[in-house]
Amino acid sequence: MANTSLQQLVIGIDIGGTGTKFGIVDRDGNVLFSSEISTKKHATVESFIDELHGALGELIQKAGGTGRIKGIGVGAPNGNYYTGTIEYAPNLPWKGIIPLAKLLEDKFQLPTSLTNDANAAAIGEMTYGAAQGMKDFIMITLGTGVGSGIVANGQLIYGHDGFAGELGHTIIIPDGRLHPGTNKHGSLESYASATGVRYTALELLEKTTEDSLLRKVPPAEMDSKKVYEAAIQGDKLARDIYEFTGRILGIALANAVMFSSPEAIILFGGLTKAGDLILKPTREHMEANLIQIFQNKVKILISHLKESDAAILGASALAWDIKTQLA
Amino acid sequence: MANTSLQQLVIGIDIGGTGTKFGIVDRDGNVLFSSEISTKKHATVESFIDELHGALGELIQKAGGTGRIKGIGVGAPNGNYYTGTIEYAPNLPWKGIIPLAKLLEDKFQLPTSLTNDANAAAIGEMTYGAAQGMKDFIMITLGTGVGSGIVANGQLIYGHDGFAGELGHTIIIPDGRLHPGTNKHGSLESYASATGVRYTALELLEKTTEDSLLRKVPPAEMDSKKVYEAAIQGDKLARDIYEFTGRILGIALANAVMFSSPEAIILFGGLTKAGDLILKPTREHMEANLIQIFQNKVKILISHLKESDAAILGASALAWDIKTQLA
């Protein structure tokens, strides 16, 4: 720790629908100080920023003051890298287009960069995690929903409007399961997410008469954790749920590979805790759907960033390459 | 033409399974001189290069000699940009890995760059065509097969191994139609290609009893041209074939948009001659499968490069940015 007083530091802020985590991070990806405030209790973004300014200000003082901070990186749902705005995020209390990066720059007098959470996760993996040194990889977050960040030629793909990388919404089964949030049928997210696993469990229980530990779970309480617990006890139906989920995910990964031909796909999030239960069918179906020139080349890796730190790290990583200039 | 004697020029070579087209091109995309030799009559790549050297040498002389030529760009099936090799191309007479760029550099003493035909087409559109000034777009060639080239952040995506951009092989209908070349089921190419349209016609004729002009066509003679001719005469079944093809293509385009969020998708090739017959359902199904943030933003454009020149232009465009150094 002898040299940390000379090191530059960055701030990472991860805004979620319920809470906002933030922390101060060094070059090696150590979260030196961190804390959390509520997102949803703030009806206006101004009151949110006021509380954040107070709480984060304390951490900045502990870290040696603003002078040591290179900038702020923010991961937020529907965050647009080009404009620094959050646009129509369904899970946040603030509606419409929120110029969040500008509001933070004005409040903290620090350059601020913003993108969506999955893109931030990808930059986090490239800066501190499993993708260090990679120029072509895809990050996929498998949580309540499915997010993705795509890196090609060493750069994140933001697309023409800043919204690239929505693999969770690509259609894998045309006319398949309805996604209540998007009103589209058969998207990856409607299957390969915690929510998707829950639906698959309920569907399979209804469609078959097969005996299963999951028959004891009341439908309202069914979730991906219950499916996991049954599967590790060898429950056939629970394993079929993972096989089915892995098939959909495998097709989606094959399509992504044939698009950008990454060195690796890095998975992060709740679903990956099922380990080989989900990874084995995913890998099998990915390979089975790849044309020959892509087969047996692409690594599927699990993120090794600590889950409690990952969101802050991802957001913070944005700030190292910050190009924003304070007006 | 007064200044052309001072202009630098490039060579474009498009290698196909049957013939190889080549020409000398100026900055504005004028093909000044061009010619063609047979590919398939050459059992070895050495004899192919000998004939090419003779034929192309004449054009170089007409253009004012090697001194005016900046370099050579080559579009070839399974062409790898990173290595300059053609790898296991099923439709070429030369098997295995062919170090084509190296062979051409040695023969012509000109720096040579190589990629696959669809990537070359994308660079051609960016250099001379509909994508001039665009930093994020996707080129899709709809011919006998389906090729694609993806540009993001102003750069072509080659991927980790040089083989990115195989949208034709992405799976749109899991368990769908078998592709005899790849042995995969339900890929875009198995539907949205001239070959795919032929199969859709044969399938629909068999599945229904509906009256159609196409019932007069012997199965062995069915092709996308016959379908087009019937459709412009108002034949309902022929129009259903385009509706079906456009639906598959529309889903594939939606998935591509949610991946890289391009400003435009540029279509090229035989299938686009059907105009709105194919474009209208394609656009409709693309929009219907996009989540809201992507809707009504992405242009679908038809390439306006002359079809006879396009392959040479695409290949030649590679040579303007050539980084290869002669050993």
Question: Strands, helices and their partners?
Answer:
Two copies of one chain form a homodimer.
Chain A: E1 9-15, E2 19-25, E3 31-38, H1 45-62, E4 69-75, E5 79-80, E6 85-87, E7 97-98, H2 100-108, E8 112-115, H3 117-128, E9 137-142, E10 146-152, E11 155-156, H4 194-207, H5 224-232, H6 236-260, E12 264-268, H7 276-289, E13 299-302, H8 307-320
Parallel strand pairs in A: 1-4, 4-8, 9-12, 12-13
Antiparallel strand pairs in A: 1-2, 2-3, 5-6, 6-7, 9-10, 10-11
Query: How many whole angstroms does the radius of gyration of chain A measure?
Result: 21 Å
Largest sheet of chain A: 5 strands, mixed
Helix/strand/pairing category of chain A: alpha/beta
* Fourth-level CATH superfamily of the largest domain in chain A: ATPase, nucleotide binding domain
Q: If helices are DSSP runs of H or I spanning 4 or more residues, what is the number of helices of chain A?
A: 8
Give the CATH class of the largest domain in chain A: Alpha Beta
What is the mean pLDDT of chain A?
94
> How much β-strand is present in the residues of chain A?
15-25%
The CATH topology assignment of the largest domain in chain A is: Nucleotidyltransferase, domain 5
Unreliable runs of chain A:
none
Q: What is the ordering of alpha helices and beta strands of chain A?
A: EEEHEEEEHEHEEEHHHEHEH
